[in-house]
Specification:
Layout lengths: L1 H11 L2 H15 L1 H16 L1 H11 L3 H14 L8 H6 L1 H12 L8 E2 L2 E2 L11 H29 L7 H4 L5 H8 L2 H24 L9 H6 L1
Antiparallel strand pairs: 1-2
Length: about 220
């Protein structure tokens, strides 16, 4: 299957460009899921002040706190898991992309700046300038992603999850992944991580919550 898909894409455009184009098409198809995920995240963030009040009031009674928290989410038309399901649905798509850029197929026979897309850097240490440029781009995108995540968390003002600072280091894992996988995987990672950063920045500005989200709890206190 992946050989046939790679062959079809290689016949569509130069292999590196085909990887970029196919990644963009897949991400466009997943855009509604990304929009739903951001909507859920914003709904939870809107309720963060009320969650803090409940925690202060019922913090010692975990059962009561859970009941009141679920009641708050239900009354605002959302849930604690809002935005999680769309992210899980995206996993199969990412697995397809991973297999496509790591399974031998005609795409990996192509080159980028003269370097075969099937080439590994780790353990071979060949074509280092091209790979270093790739790592630099991935590091830049990871840094921007980490800073953006921190800014969103600060703006939302909600409780931070455990190891929040450690979680912000996860985007830099793409550099390690690109170092051990074929160059084709690095091309995919640059494309998809850049898309994710730009898409989420856009959606956080464009997605508006329905009037009921984050409002009924405040209405009850006035």
């Amino acid at each position: 299957m992946f050989h046939a898909l790679g062959s079809a894409l290689a016949g569509f455009a130069t292999p590196a460009l085909a990887i970029v184009a196919f990644t963009v098409v897949v991400r466009l198809l997943m855009h509604p899921l990304s929009r739903a995920a951001v909507r859920g995240e914003k709904a939870r963030a809107a309720l963060a002040p009320e969650i803090r009040k409940l925690t202060e009031k019922y913090g010692k009674d975990k059962v009561k706190l859970q009941e009141k928290t679920l009641e708050l989410y239900r009354s605002n038309g959302t849930s604690m898991l809002a935005g999680c399901l769309p992210a899980l649905v995206q996993v199969p798509f990412f697995m397809v992309m991973y297999r496509l850029v790591t399974t031998p197929n005609p795409l990996l026979d192509g080159t980028l700046l003269g370097v075969p897309l099937g080439t590994h850097w780790f353990g071979v240490w060949a074509h280092t300038p091209v790979f270093l440029a790739l790592f630099a781009v991935l590091t830049g995108v990871a840094f921007a992603t980490s800073r953006w995540q921190a800014a969103v968390a600060l703006r939302n003002g909600g409780p931070q999850p455990p190891f929040a600072k450690l979680l912000r280091l996860l985007p830099f894992g793409t550099v390690f992944i690109a170092a051990v996988l074929p160059l084709a995987a690095g091309v995919y990672l640059v494309t998809t991580t850049t898309w994710t950063l730009l898409e989420r920045a856009f959606l956080y500005r464009a997605v508006q919550l329905p009037p009921r989200a984050g409002t009924s709890a405040r209405a009850r206190t006035t």
